[in-house]
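Researcher: Re-running this chain for the archive, since the previous output was lost when a drive failed. Same request as before.
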Amino acid sequence: MNTMRNAAAPSRISAGLLGMTRHVAAVARPGAATSPRKLHTGATTDVAGTATSTAPATKFDIGGGVELPVPSDVAPLFQPYSLSGGRFQLSNRIVYAPLTRMRAVGTIPQPSAAVYYSQRAVPGGLIISEATNIAPEGLGYMNTPGLWLPEQLEGWKPVVRAVKDKGAVFFCQLWHCGRASHPDLQPNGAAPISSSNRPITSPEYQVYTPSGPKSYTAPRPATREEIKRVVGEYARAAKNAIEVAGFDGVEIHGANGYFIDQFIKDSVNDRTDEYGGSIENRCRFALEVVEAVVNAVGADRVGIRISPFTTFLDALDSTPYATHVYLVEKLNAYGLSYVHMVEPRVLGVIDLDSSPDSLAPFRRVYKGTFITAGGFKAENGAEALADGEADLVAYGRWYLANPDLHKRFLLHAPLNKYDRDTFYSPGMEGYLDYPTLEEVQAREAQ
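Model: Regenerated structure tokens:
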């Protein structure tokens, strides 16, 4: 999710331009959510009440047969978890969040991606890939990978193999950008499709094209036939990801102002047919995509990401609780692997000090595995789990900058600072060169 904020040089795109959150002040968590599924550091249970661990983890395998003691203050992060009804046995509750990196060549994943993801893989860990385009029309950003060409799938195979060789579980995030695109990036220079013809107008957002940064243009409303076609493209992309590339599962990107979110949010969707107007109608497309992907690959291999409060790309909803409680209630019927939601303190590209809003109502409604994401570190991530706010916690920027994040949390070691200027720049800087703790210590000893 990498939309530009202001102009950037073609050779180097500032990370603040591209959908990662900009830190304004130290994050203070809103009040802990009340939940009947509180995680204790003793016995833990999954959402069905089945025990996943009878005692707190005392040691954790970080890979290579190396085990480290688990301190009590971070112990909730290192409890095992049974995902997808037991299909995937996770060793811990830390998830690598989907992060756009723009290191593909065109739309082809590169060998460097195998190094990048495997650096961050631990036995029994869950990694969600960068957003991956499902079709040419879904492309919104340069140098982001796809899932529709044989060469794209061949490019993904060694990446997936490298992660699974480390013993990790690997899901691929399915992406269609909708109006967050430009005719310069579309087949035959066509206007991008969306739920309506409303363009992204906030001046801080620009799209990066082969000829430089440009303002967004008006999209065209998708016809019913096009909606049906895109639903099929999600299903085909899911099958390609799992059956050809070898991913364990897929995550449907329904967040952050992209195509599915453009139907959900009423600031974008002004349709008057069965895909617009009421909450039920605005959620219809998302649920049709979920049903098609579930039918294609099985519910236990499918997750979805949702952002009720995010205003990124001018996509906001006037009744976020009503809209997304309805959506989450409907998702209960599918038996998904998980629902992944973005914390309300993450608004657009801003991290707030705090927020009066909460994911607690959605947590209470959803009956399956619940992942929360949004600027967590070790302490507040462990607190979120201990307080029952989520089953798993997704880490983005801090995990990006610390490929050995699990080890650093276990040792209470300092974290590498992330460099926003290299989040999306070409080359390996800020991609493969974040040092491990041992490398930092070796440099300091010189």
